[in-house]
Design brief:
This protein is mainly alpha-helical. It has 12 helices and 5 strands. The chain binds benzoyl coenzyme A.
Length: about 475
Amino acid sequence: MAIDYQSKIPNNVDLSNDRALQRALEHWQPAFIDWWKDLGPTMYQGHDVYLRTATSVDAKGWATFGHVKMPDYRWGIFLADQQKDRTIGFGDYKGKPVWQQVPGEYRSILRRLIVTQGDTEPASVEQQRLLALTAPSLYDMRNLFQVNVEEGRHLWAMVYLLHAYFGRDGREEAEEMLFRHSGDPDHPRILGTFNEPIDDWLSFYMFTYFTDRDGKYQLKSLAESGFDPLARTCSFMLTEEAHHMFVGETGIARVIKRTLEEMTKLGSDDPEALRKTGVIDLPLLQRYINFWYSSALDLFGSEISSNAATYFANGLKGRPDEGTYEDHDCTGTIEQVETPNGVEEIATRNAMNLITRNAYIRDCEIGLTRWNRNIAKAGFNYQLKLPSDKFNRNVGVWAGHDFDPEGRACSREAIISALPSEQDRSYVKSLMVGITEPGQCANWTCPPDRGINSMPFEYEYVRAAA
Ligand code: BYC
């Protein structure tokens, strides 16, 4: 169905034919806008920002670009088109028609999955709210805002499901989404990483590379769901997610490119000498990778999980790209899972978090290979690496065990020294200066190869309202 932009809430779910739901969502809308104004991007709410907005949910007609004030962004409800005769692709109900309503016996687990997913979206906006003040260019500032408005829309996606399919409890959960806040000691966000501050741009690029990529893999798993409205909304969210990971990958690549320029000029990779030129040395970058990657691994839950087995058995959450697997039942097979007690044989259904995480890890490697190729091309013998999955873990079988980035048992101090130090963080913060001249770029990074939507880097992506 085409997107209806005439309604107060843009949608392609025929909202105007369900007055009760429309009223409930119109009631939630001002609370969302208040939250956005209070806890969304600071300072720039009145500026015109060059944003893309969804115009259609198919691959061809996705987006339109134009200057918009963020509070006027048309947040709405967009689901990928319904597939005719879709059946459940895995678990005990494989081959049965997908559900258009919530099956009563799975109501509370489905609600929990949707709430956990939804909670991350406003969390990330809150985490990033001060970043615009130190944006390294207007291009970057625009990308930050694009990511933020789309996370806001992803919240809308989950709130729609809660309102439309979970009655009063759903409405209460939707309110809670705006009540919990990232880092709030009394009402924190649900998952660990989403309470970590993101107060410098290196962290933002790491977050969009590693944490948004967890988002991609979780959404891919939920896009397989037998609960069809969840599958359809996650399918469309995935199309928006791709740009966020692009921001991370190219953001880190630009930092590396700039550092390599200074390394080449100096003929040295000495961090001290490089810091005098105001760029980010590669060992510091590695420590940021160690931090954000290990935190992202925690987001997959435990390697051995009866929750994950239940989700799979009941057709609620599959594996990413479920269609590429041969066995969609997974009852008669086992996985070898490494644990502190040695390798254990675990029923495949109980190892779903690990299987999803392994796909994620392979995807993470792609960026590292590209970055390392550029380092080698510049003639330097340094390789960025993903740390071992045992390093710095707070969730799962390795939580509470001390392993270094190579996966060797180590002292607590060795872990701490592989993570960003206070000195690293304050050095990175010292580099953060807001650049608001079109076409200018902070010294610690460099302009991208191309701008947004064929516009040049020099374009005024963010401007004061006329
Ligand atoms: N922090 O069996 P376990 C995104 C809890 S990011 C705190 O090990 P399970 C985005 C767990 O809830 C993607 N608690 O794990 C990115 C459970 O609690 P209960 C977000 C954690 O349940 C950037 C207990 O520990 N989407 O979209 O198999 C910007 C034992 O659980 C953590 C989703 O996560 C943690 N890290 O899997 C914006 C998808 N990990 O039930 C957005 C929905 C686990 O005992 N969520 N716990 O009270 C899920 O599928 C699952 O909840 C998880 C955990 C994968 C997170």
